[in-house]
Model the fold of this input.
Amino acid sequence: MQRFSLWMFRHPRLKLALLLSAPLSWLVVAYLGSLSVMLVSAFWSVDSFTGAVVHTFTLSNFHTLVTQNVYRVVAVRSITVAVLVTFFDALVAIPVALFIAKVLPRRFRNWAVVLVVLPLWASYLVKTYAWRTLFADGGVLDWALAPLGLHAPSYGLLATTVTLAYLWFPYMALPVYAAVDKLPDSLLEASADLGASPMQTVRYILLPLVYPALIAGAIFTFSLTLGDYIVVKIVGGKTQLFANIVFDNIGTAGNLPFAAAAAIVPIVAVVSFLFLARRTGALENL
Amino acid sequence: MLAKRTLGFLSIVSAVVLVTAGCSSSNKASDSKLPDIPMQQTLGKGEGALNIVAWAGYAENGSTDKNVDWVTPFEKSTGCKVNVKVGNTSDEMVTLMKSGQYDGVSASGDATLRLIYGGDVAPVNTDLVPNYATISDFLKNKPWNSVNDHMYGIPHGWGANVLAYNKAVVKEAPTSWSAVFDKNSPYQGKITAYDSPIYIADAALYLMAKQPQLGITDPYSLDQAQFDAAVALLKQQKSLVGEYWADYTKAVQSFESGNTAIGTSWQVIVNLINSGGKANVGAVVPTEGATGWSDTWMISAKAAHPNCMYMWMDHITSASANAQVAEWFGEAPSQTLACAKTSDKTFCDSYHATDAEYAANIHYWTTPTADCLDGRGNICKDYAAWTQAWTDIKG
Done:
């Protein structure tokens, strides 16, 4: 054993190779491998009667995706929902983070962070079905809004957006809190001393400094929303998102090649989002 | 940094894709000839386990309702431990059977031929299923369960898709599907519809009576003009629909919470709602008639537990088990002797169980093909077109 470790010590490159081979092969085989198999199958088709996969190169899946109006409509709808969810989460995360990091006495801070993360400990489905009950006709929201003469929105896009924003909120709140926490109080005080209003301090001091954290949170909320198909099934009423097209083609139509082709659309959306985020320089600070 | 790396990975991936895609183009396309799959000749001992895909309510083990249980007696007598996977739509069942992990399936007519020609199920040796002899004759050797007069499964039961309505909202029992299709329907926003391409046939059935000039004779054989009319009707219906359902628990919950007041449903869903007591729901077959199902237990070509599957097919078509499942699900039993075993003695009469003429009037789910099923030639829309249209309808 000792001789082995001595020999290893003399061959540092081999040591490194052995150490990295397991995680690297996981990355290449399991992750990139399955991704490429999926992308390859996007160029296949299925026999319309037996549902068997036909291994012949064809661009027909992409042709359908581009020419059929419905896919464009659903893609735009999904991206809009993802942007709205990200926006709502950011809008709520900033005041929450400011309150926890700068207003709350230090001894309560960790407890407050635990409270923000606590919903992650409950099952995703339980939370979504809870929202289904909230949005039901004559449900809690209806009851709460009745004195104002309002009706709760029925199952649909709004309910889906609200539920998704609730589900992914901790992913936005945590990085934003970490960034606000790191911000020296003196900066905020200096801004106030120089005559800036609280809103001006938020706009010109706080926002530029927590911007990278907002982008980090947005990457989570945006890509998680684009990949979700269950929430919209439960509270979405009759609407559908792009992930449902992928799911329906796997589960219902049994058309794996088309599902693979459709899956490329959210991938392209997320990659373009990352590309835009990189252009702003926010990723360099992560 | 992150983005640069991601883009780097993606360019590697896309390079791999292009290379492999280029190679794969040399593979031959599969044709849809009848695959040659051997039939089991003798029945051996049970393998101790059985994995089946079934419609909700077809394989009850007492967990839904402790008085509803025909799986436990089967497990006790054969030693085959039953695992049930509920399939929500026929398409889902076909996909599950293609995985090769299941021994058998309760397939409806819109799944059977796809499974047979896909080589996913094996021909059935009816001699190994003693209860087959007394099954209603009008269910044997039918186009949806046999090929060249050879059975590919054991008939289980049949029935119609009903129009279910909440009696608190819909005061008078509806008599027409117009309650869910007419654009002036008073139930706008409270209507539900089945979330599957096969639901296009329900619209076609309604048009068959409503617009006879379209000349629809079979809701599963639609030429371009007829298909367009059905799709247009469903797009118009979408503005009336509150939610679509495929998952039967969601259908139950939607009626109970009041989000749905009327819509296409199954008798078993109506029974579940009424036994729960949160809503009082009625079910009718409207004057236009109804689509329906005729289900068949089929054995997988790759069954890991074939003996248990044969024993199951015999058990589920035995007089007492078939009577129980028929009463629970709300369908006509396939087993003629089951009528003597039902707890409600008028059950078989009310479901017309042995009435061949009535059975012939239901438009059973079947797979639409380009070659029209009603013999008009090669002018019909196939199931791929139906699937595409369904995505389009949901928008």
In short: The mean pLDDT of chain B is 87. The domain at 162-289+368-394 of chain B is CATH 3.40.190.10 (D-Maltodextrin-Binding Protein; domain 2).
